[in-house]
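Here is one chain, start to finish.
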Amino acid sequence: MSCDSLGRVPWLQRWGWLVPAVAGLFLVVSADTRADGEQSANVVAIEEDWELVVKEPDQETQAPQVTCIIAPNNDDAGLFAAFNLNHKSFPQYDAGGLHLQLWQGDTPLDSAQFPSDALLATANETITWTMRMHLHEGRLWFEIVSGSSNTWGDFGHAGTLKASIATETPNLNHYEAGDSMSNSGVGFAGNRVTSLKLIAVRKVLESGDVVEDNQTRTVHPQH
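Its structure:
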């Protein structure tokens, strides 16, 4: 993948960056099945655990900048949420902070911003968070929860990074972890990031049972 002189990665897809997707096998903890072997319960929530390790941030160039994507299905004009770390890209560019955006194709729908606009400044900092997508009472919710960092402290614990849209979607059965992988990445100064990883994925069924995948997928660096 080519980069410009500042380490920016070109946008190669509608949501983010073209990263090889790694297929994972899901372990069914407990779920009812029909006689034909198909899963009987619909998926009503998805949780993705992410980890970002920043090697050497630079406040002067506001680097690095990272975006992670989650979507209910793989659709060019579909709905998705983008979580920006160390920058805000909409409605105008701003450096620093954490920003959650909700889009329908190229149309912005909703957004939420963490109160702190701090810039990454700590070498070898590890940042972790969970991206959650769930259906509730006719709405599809996207939120960041259980975030932990040196720069911004704990984030996503008080509903500050949360957005939603009305939907008639009955389930999230078409979600694929590979879509998140292939559309997430380091958009600026990848040389200043040690790693960006999707650590685990959980599918919550309408029965309350959980389908868990603990395979670690590396988004950055690419091999």
